[in-house]
Design goal:
Distance between the termini: 72 Å
Strand order of the largest sheet: 3-2-1-4-5
Strand content: over 45%
Largest sheet: 5 strands, antiparallel
Number of helices: 2
Number of domains: 2
Structural class: alpha+beta
CATH class of the largest domain: Mainly Beta
Radius of gyration: 21 Å
Shape: elongated
CATH topology of the largest domain: OB fold (Dihydrolipoamide Acetyltransferase, E2P)
Order of helices and strands: HEEEHEE
Helix content: 25-40%
Number of strands: 5
Length: about 120
């Protein structure tokens, strides 16, 4: 009986330690990304929206996290995909042209110039 209690404590402690380690690593990564973005100057580019997608994650039919992505094409033909707020995602369609504002590769805003 004592052995089972000790094993239970070890397993639960190990699981709690693993969860804490994953949380710590994720938060450090986000902090580094934010710090890098803050050191990068604001940038504006003329772009065309060429793609849209969303990603929903969850369990047992419940959506826990929803992310929206837009793909922008620059005048030189290069493309980049950025996470955008749902409000922006809902208002833009493929073919929209405008000015993309970003900082460190993170979406800051989009001003539409034409409706297709």
């Amino acid at each position: 009986m004592m052995f089972a209690v000790v094993m239970l404590i070890v397993v639960v402690g190990g699981l709690a330690g693993f969860i804490w380690l994953v949380y710590w690593a994720a938060s450090r990564s986000l902090q580094r990304s934010a710090a890098t973005a803050e050191l990068t100057p604001m940038q504006t580019d003329d772009v065309t929206v060429v793609g849209k997608r969303n990603d929903a994650t969850g369990a047992a039919g419940l959506t826990i996290n929803q992310q929206y992505f837009l793909t922008f094409e620059f005048a030189d033909g290069n493309r980049t995909e950025m996470v955008v707020p749902g409000e922006v995602f809902g208002l833009l369609v493929e073919g929209d042209r405008g000015t993309l504002t970003s900082m460190g590769g993170l979406f800051e805003g989009f001003e539409r110039r034409s409706l297709r």
